[in-house]
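Co-fold these.
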Amino acid sequence: MFVSLTLFTLFGKSARKRTTSMNHKLGIDVGGTFTDFVLLDESTGEIIVHKCLTTPGDPSDAAVDGIQELTKRVPGLPQKLAEVIHGTTLVINAIIERKGAPTALITTEGFRDVLELGREIRYAPYNIFAEFPEPLVPRRLRLEVEERIRADGSVLTAMNLERAREIVGTLPQTGVESVAVCLLNSFENPEHELALKKIIAQACPGVSISISYEVLPQIREYERTSTTVANAYVKPLTEKYLYRLSDRLTSLGFKGRLFIMLSSGGITSVQTAAEFPVRIIESGPTAAVIAGEYFSRLFELPDMFCFDMGGTTAKSCLIQDGVAGVVPTFEVGRVQRFMKGSGLTIQVPVVDLMEIGAGGGSIARMSQVGTLQVGPESAGADPGPICYGLGGEKPTVTDADLLLGYLDADYFLGGEMQLDAKAARNAIAEQIAEPLGVSTIQAVWGIHDLINETMAAAAKTHIAERGGNPKVVTLAAFGGAGPVHAFGLARKLGAPRVIVPPNAGVGSALGFFTAPRAFDLVRSHKVSLQEADYNEIESLFGEMEAEGERTLRTAGVTDEISFLRSVDARFVGQGSETNLLLPEGAFTTLKPEALRRQFDETYEKLYGRTYPETPVEFVNFRVRASLPVQPLQLPRLHGKQASLQEALKGERLAYSGLAHDFIPFTVYDRYKLFAGATIAGPAIIEERESTAIVGEDATVTVDEFGFLWIELKGNDKRVP
Amino acid sequence: MITKFDPITLEILWRRLLSIVDEADATVARTAFSSLLRDAHDYTCMFTDRQGRELAQGTLATPGQSGAMALGIKRLVQSIPAETFRPGDVYITNDPWALAGHLNDICVFSPIFHKDRLAAFTACVLHHSDIGGRVASDNHDVFEEGLFIPLVKLYDAGVENQAVMDLIRWNVRTPDEVIGDIRSQIAANHVCAEQVCQMMAAENLDSLDDLADEIIQRSEKSIRAAIAKVPDGIYRAEGVIEQMADRADIVIKAAVEISGSDIMVNLEGSSPQVDWGGNVVYNFTYAYVHMAVKSIFDPDIPNNDGSVAPICLKAPEGSVVNCRFPAAVAARMQIGHFMTEILYRALAPALPQRVIAGSGGTPATMNVFYGKQSNGRPWHSVLIRGGGTGAGCRQDGEQCYIFPANGANTPVEILESDTPLIVERRELLPDSGGAGKQRGGLGRRVVFRIPDDEYAPEPPVNLGIQSGRFRLPPAGLSGGRPGARAQFLVNGEPGNPYGLTRLQPGDRVTMDAAGGGGYGAPKERDRQALLVDVQDGKVSMEAAKKDYGIEMDL
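Predicted complex below.
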């Protein structure tokens, strides 16, 4: 399968004057199935999108092929590229498929089983046969050294260097290619870990080393060990791949800078990504979120909910005041898909994405109690939904969407694939409607409605947990199935508005060009808010900022670096922390009373009340080091006000959830819509990769950038 | 007004109820104070219809609390005249006989009103790490065990009853923590109530009655269908549970009668109640009987009033599994947790593929350390832990989990930063998993030391323990061998796990959790699996020879 298309063109202004020779930027996103390319010509604002199959053996093959394809359309492209920004699923796949390097772990005597014991909670309390993930390092490769640091960082037992050398000396014969070091309480005092790092480097040349103090200097030994081990496990392979990609780009004639997308939403240098590969674990889906942040700021929408629905999963993220949340923890390789707690814990800053098993391929069936179930199992792309005619036999969400009239059997992927409605209808009638004792149309609508309900339930919890309100968010719909389901989801959330960016199927890739060059650092250090030595904290921040600056400079940049400081604080003895953004300036200029007030205000906003009489302590100190964001001008729609008649494709019957019946929807060609066009629902707006559904109680306008703005009537009146 | 629910609408609304409870559950996690809550998830949120029938409970609910609550909340709610409930009422109680079997489990519940009519109840039970009293298993009656809060109103139509708060505050050691945690329970119920009302408004429901009937009936039908597949008959098992050194072992006799889709569990003939804290109230016995039945027959359907309907429990009053007030009950899990294992053993001949061997995490081990830090500030820390789980016919036991209860450990680094304790080791115990075709999960050793240098706390440091398996190890099934026994050592010498242990700076405490029982004959064990165990140091070469009859040469 090979697809290549130009999305929309022109009238964008170059944001920055550059030498005319290097005025392009290229985003390359290597996904499980496809590698996506987005090329931006900064001098014209023109964007070209290209897609080809991922080459799992060596993903840089697809990257190089893609650039060569694009070069056919933009002669001399490699020389014209100022930046290549790269996102990849390499790291996460290596962990899921257990394809990392043979790895050893060195830890404090008495604690080699921390990695295997984990947090000891059964994630499915009533399922006595629930499986748990195998640790990435088997017990025989978990070695112990005699040493001990106390909780306050003082040395309880000095490291037995002689024993340590002996133990490290046994490593070469085990064939390990990578070593993780995680000692108890090392986040308060790294001296023993640093000593081990030296010993390993001397005794085992060529073996890569990851020490917890550098990967994640944060309290909680299981989480820190697991993260450090995961980093070590994927380091050799990531390093090899990134440097190979870099070399191949150079040999094509590329002279610009290569950046790697971080899971936290920033981009970083190849060196940093190779050193801390665990930081790029979720780098793929992050681009959509960054694009969302950009749209949120551009359109001044303070509460936005990004909703990216593909074939297997839906990924969502709440954006508040133009900023997506970043959470400190992530779970990978769940033994039971979508079961929280059944995977390996990795603590790295990750964009606060919620992923649930709801996609176009989600399978519908009858449950044990005789009700309808949809997902989380998915037919994926192969065999896919029944209507694809590729051998799928189980009814899916896409089959229902087709039968509801939302998809056009003759214009799927621009008409490239003919859909089989009859087969889909028969299967739903036999497998769903009949056993449930409902009509076929009830079953078809039920599949669509239930998957929306599943997503809405998850979204409500996600939004509420972040102190947001689902009734004020603007939904930004991405992904192939996103615009098909966004309207129904918005209705369930009570959200007043949906926006659909141009080319929502791939539009998320714009995030590559707006991603900040940023790096997040964290250091655990538990001290009382009232009694802490603020000078000591200032020097801690100073150290972290120096480290952040060093990291960013490896990308060869000279721009001014800005630092955003924050602290995680909690009531003494409380379980989870609340993050407080700190004002600019030295920590020593801050007053404990003011910080206390800020804590109480933040806490109250999140949890409804606060307890001023209970003392507060700091737990983690955080710094985000970043370079200025380069402004991006969205390409504008060209052409004059035309008549809607030209964009009109016709009319078809589609299902209305309000009328509980099929009603005529007007169908439009999105590529022929113009700025200022206004359409009253019910309407269907079709583009190649997706279809936007607009109910009869909504209107759509098209803005100057080609975004669809779907305003839901009634919802905005439902004030909570 | 919708009066009947098609299976699609029903699923949508059912799902919404479950997500409402999970949201309430998350509220507790985010606002609670004590480490037991945040790390061990020792609390349960649920809600019922207006008759007190359970409709939904949190996904990660602790089986002991959730099973007991399904019964307890229904009785409490029905004991209060329906017309006396008012919006803004908040009830509180920790009556062990009414709810979850010991004083530490405080329940807070509220009526939910919709359009001025009673629509439902929301409840949250939470294990408070401190409820005052003498923290030990060998108390003689419930009065020694701490503060007893009878069913009272904490808020009367929205007005706080300050006297109740003060009464609690002055009867516990760490009042800020306890009051803070009660507030987080109130917050969870508030979130639940708001969401239920929003759902009723959005769906134009005047009452939840029809929806409740549907959910309950369908769940009941599902579990009944699974029970009906088992041949009718009476399946028996006996459990022997050790108690304090100078007392006779406790015997639990279980006769499980399956007739059609009904399951009757009769505990006639079990030992009489005891003069220490191991006594189990009816509700808590019921909870772990329910855990056994649910995990065998219908683990995937969310719990509600329907999933308990086929189960009938007969436990003689005055016995250790249905004790009378004012028996001491603080250590009720030491006996109550065994109910699940005993039922598994009874049903193993009929359903060998649906049960597992004895687990080292039965009963859960609880350590309560408390004392004063060097600066005089009081500290109090509760640690709960499990052991190796029993093997099943297709898989080895896992290490280490609390079973049949549930909970997470407290990270060593958190414990050390919150208390003066040093943890010297936390590691798996080789050869502790019962040998078998499928090996039992390994037990685990934890070693604590009280510092005696400038970090030394004010002596003494008090240690209260609830545990078991010191003499009688977790049994194997179908020819599998038992797992290793538990151990409690103070400075290398066996300590008394039933009393309160007073420790001095420099003392070292070793807690070994038991390993799980094996399943099937050891000689049938796959050689490759045994080799990996030996390479990983989970089975020693000596044990490979002795228990499995195989000489290993690495």
